[in-house]
Amino acid sequence: MNLFGGSSTGSFGGGSLFGGNQQVVVNYNPMKDVEVASPPDDSVSSLQFSPGTLTSTFLVAGSWDNNVRCWQVEQNGQTIPKAQQTHTGPVLDVAWSDDGTKVFTASCDKTAKMWDLASNQAMQIAQHDAPIKTIHWIKAPSYSCVMTGSWDKTLKFWDTRSPNPMMTINLPERVYCADVHYPMAVVGIAGRGIIIYQLENQPREYKTMDSPLKYQVRHEMPNNRKKK
Q1: Considering all CA atoms of the chain, what is the largest pairwise distance in Å, rounded to the nearest integer?
Q2: What distance in Å separates the CA atoms of residue 51 and residue 97, rounded to the nearest whole number?
Q3: What is the pLDDT of residue 92?
Q4: Residue/partner pairs of 104-108 with CB below 8 Å, 24 or more apart
Q5: Mean pLDDT of successive 10-residue segments in the chain (228 residues)?
Q6: What is the CATH architecture of 36-210?
Q7: Residue 54, CA distances (Å) to 21, 99, 101, 117, 212 in order
Q8: How many CB atoms lie under 10 A from the CB of residue 139?
Q9: Where are the annotated WD repeats, by residue (predicted)?
Q10: Please, which residues have CB within 8 angstroms of residue 164's CB and are 6 or more apart in sequence?
Q11: What is the pLDDT of residue 5?
């Protein structure tokens, strides 16, 4: 039985009680899940719903097909494809600005982009020496910026109006995952390391620790992909 909304076929002992072959088809979808219209052509790496500042709900997804897509989500769960943008490598992470007007994307092509949804234009805002694994928007009382974490072992903070980073923090290992909840940010790196940053005034290291988990903290890549 398929628990994720597909159809499955099954038989009892290979046949019916009367000697013939009989199949039972079951459509099992108790949560009434709805597949998005025009889904990506490859594995999905990141999903983000729009912030509550918007009157409508939107969903963006980054994929290994090099694209980031945006859908409008209706009250009944149905989705309407609205637009998409492209990188020259797989899109590993996506993030919204706090006002919902822009989407930030991080890619294996070593760049990050800012997608202005009103004009449907995307521009490069960040550059690393290796694939960019994480991207987050930081809205602080005294500054706003984009934080990117990369496999080049750096964490960078960007003013989207400048091609150069506001700050670069060198790390002991590659960035595998990160999250921001102002005034704090947490970054998971290779080797089970976790680094916590204080974001008030300007980013600075607050605490380092080893993960209590047995295995590496990270977002898993699809099984058919190898880290570059």
Answers
A1: 78
A2: 8
A3: 98
A4: 104/135, 104/136, 104/137, 104/146, 105/62, 105/68, 105/135, 106/62, 106/132, 106/133, 106/134, 106/135, 106/148, 107/62, 107/66, 107/131, 107/132, 108/132, 108/228
A5: 35 43 70 91 97 95 98 94 97 97 98 97 98 97 96 98 96 96 96 95 93 64 42
A6: 7 Propeller (2.130)
A7: 55, 7, 9, 12, 38
A8: 13
A9: 37-81, 84-125, 125-168
A10: none
A11: 36
Q: Supply 137's token pair.
A: 């928007």
* pLDDT number for residue 1: 34
Name the DSSP letter for residue 73.
Answer: E
User: What pLDDT, on a 0 to 100 scale, did the predictor assign at position 227?
Assistant: 42
Long-range (24+ apart) CB contacts under 8 A made by 137-144 are: 137/95, 137/96, 137/97, 137/98, 137/104, 137/180, 138/180, 138/182, 138/185, 138/199, 139/98, 139/182, 140/182, 140/183, 140/199, 140/200, 142/201, 143/202
What pLDDT, on the 0 to 100 scale, is given for residue 28? 82
Domain boundaries, the chain: 1-33, 36-210
Distance CA(27)–CA(30), nearest Å, equals 9
Cβ within 8 Å of residue 200, ≥6 positions away: 140, 183
